[in-house]
Amino acid sequence: MTIIKRIINMKSANLMIMSAAMALATSTADAANASQELIGKSEVRITDGRMTPEALWAMGRMGGVSVSPDNKKVVYTVAYYSVPQNKSNREIFIMNADGSGQQQLTATPFSENEATFIKGGSKIAFLSSESGSSQLWEMDLDGTNRKQLSQYDGDVEGFSFSPDGKKVLFVAQVKTVPSTADKYPDLPKASGVVVNDLMYKHWDEWVTTAPHPFVADFDGSSLSNVTDIMQGEPYESPMKPFGGMEQLAWNTTSDKIAYTSRKKTGKEYAVSTNSDIYVYDLQTKKTVNITEGMMGYDTNPQYSPDGKSIAWLSMERDGYEADLNRLFVMNLETGEKRFVSQAFESNVDGFCWNTDSKSIYFTGVWHATSQIYSVNLKDNSIKALTSGQHDYASIALCGKKLIATRHSMSMPDDIYAIDLKGKATQLTFENKHITDQIEMGKVEERWMTTTDGKRMLTWVIYPPKFDPTKKYPTLLYCQGGPQSAVSQFWSYRWNLQIMASNDYIIVAPNRRGLPGFGKEWNEQISGDYGGQCMNDYFTAIDEMAKEPFVDKDRLGCVGASFGGFSVYWLAGHHNKRFKAFIAHDGIFNMEMQYLETEEMWFANWDMGGAYWERDNATAQRTFANSPHQFVDKWDTPILCIHGEKDYRILASQGMAAFNAAILRGVPAQLLLYPDENHWVLKPQNGILWQRTFFEWLDKWLKK
């Protein structure tokens, strides 16, 4: 399942990290062949105003944003994709804080990443693989005088300069699991791996290394005296697979480093979400756990500008990764910890301190949009700063304004300036040359009454040039996560506007088990996958089917991860509502999923326990509701999609579902990716995904 969520600043941050990871992997290889065609901004011609897969992949993807110390300039990155080359490249841009004077600083095949101001704002530091591996570089503000700063034997994956500029904190992988060749040097080509404990695989990799934080002296031109502050520890910091530099922080006096780690391995790691915030003292070399006894995820520390406090994100319960993500502040003198976001009945996703250290700005989802809020630390009162049909993602303070990225279902990320009254000004228009050619469908907010008398917000996306006198095939979109909000998200694959542009009405409900509607609504799904959340899906599609412009004889159902599970479950319970299904990376057999997945805390919490626990009523209900138990009722064409590098939900689940459909005589198709994981990241695979997706739907819903 797409269990990205609140380990880091979700959704947009996760997309940035995945894009950066892809860029790192490809750019290292690029360094050996610098003469290749440069991947830059794409031009695309759209003749009929309809979005296409090619248009999506032609769009530049906004990355990290950094503000200069004097609040006058902003540096950011944009990733560009090449379908013919089947890879990406990331470049660095700079502009004035009001959006003027935009300038591209790099134009290389080396995928420059993580750009930030250093040396009082006179230089920009960044990562580049120009030397053959990802290393730390600097350049002038006009892009000249590039200079390599690090010579680390391995890839530098992230970095942060100390406030005094004399040290650098960076992240690199260390080997934690001996290889077969280490044990048997005479078998260097042996591919077998001997496994003795759990967590031998994670998301999309065989676990052999862990990221560690390193600290080095910096004399202005190079790094020296490199020290692994977790030397000899087989643990992760930041935490895989999505953690980045947001999980580490310098204190204001440059003598302490706070870092996030779940100091567990094997089975103990697999069954627990109990990460903590540790503080390493550079002078004494001692480490202190400041969140000991806090049992859930504790992540993303940030010291206050006055150095008197530290804030972080905290979940309460061990083993529950979708618990309420709370903003905590600790007084460093007294040790007092306060839950300061208690008045906000949803998750805090990302945050930044105000300069006066008396308030904190944060982003969070409420009623299916992600907005910016402020919390006054004097009384913990919370004020909404923004509103509207869009999502704010990353935020940074820039004088008396905030710099943030913003997107919606109808617009990819751009950078905005938001004044303290909430007025937003768009600063970048990265994809205007493409979006100006596209007619987006209307996005409508509807509230529906569920089967248990609750109110549910459902997004409805209409085709461009919608004609209410016509009847349209209609798709029910099933969200993954399972507890990821159906907010105003923008996706380059599960893009609801491209579905609408193919003349489908899209119905996207915020069913039970999603944040932004209170704790009870979010938590109802745990141990009840086949229960109320499925009734909510039926409510959404049945209510829309009453509309005269919805063709109730041409309804489809699509989804990925938990959404894929939902499709498989609905296929056995829909009572002929739907005429076509598409399931991507979904759970088909719950019993096998329990044993095949890697992070067991998820299975234990959401399923309620193991299937052999015969006296566990919750677990027995879960496994009795496994989609594979209802294959005898399958009667509707289904497309199954899966990546073979998906170690969260193994490809055997998709293969089994496809096989079952064929054996049942149900029309079915299988799209299998040997080189993709829980997502589809390669451009040509992404376009193949879109083409297969719509070919299948058109075949069964547009007859």
Task: Note the overall shape.
Answer: globular
**Main sheet: which strands, in order across?**
31-32-34-33-35-36-37-38
Structural class of the helix and strand makeup? Answer: alpha+beta
Helicity range: 10-25%
Tell me the span between the first and last alpha carbons.
33 Å
Quaternary structure annotation: single chain
List unreliable stretches of 5+ residues: 1-34
Strands, count: 38
- The CATH class of the domain at 439-701 is identified as Alpha Beta
Residue share in β-strands: 25-35%
Task: Describe what this molecule looks like in 3D.
This protein has 703 residues and is α+β, with helices and mostly antiparallel strands. It has a domain at 439-701: 3-Layer(aba) Sandwich (Rossmann fold). Helix content is 18%, strand content 33%. The chain is built from 14 helices and 38 strands. It has an 8-stranded mixed sheet with strand order 31-32-34-33-35-36-37-38, sandwiched between helices. The protein has a 4-stranded antiparallel sheet with strand order 1-2-3-4, covered by helices on one side. The chain has a 4-stranded antiparallel sheet with strand order 5-6-7-8, with no helix packed on it. Strand 3 and strand 4 (103-104) form a beta hairpin. The protein starts with 11 loop residues before the first helix and ends with a helix.
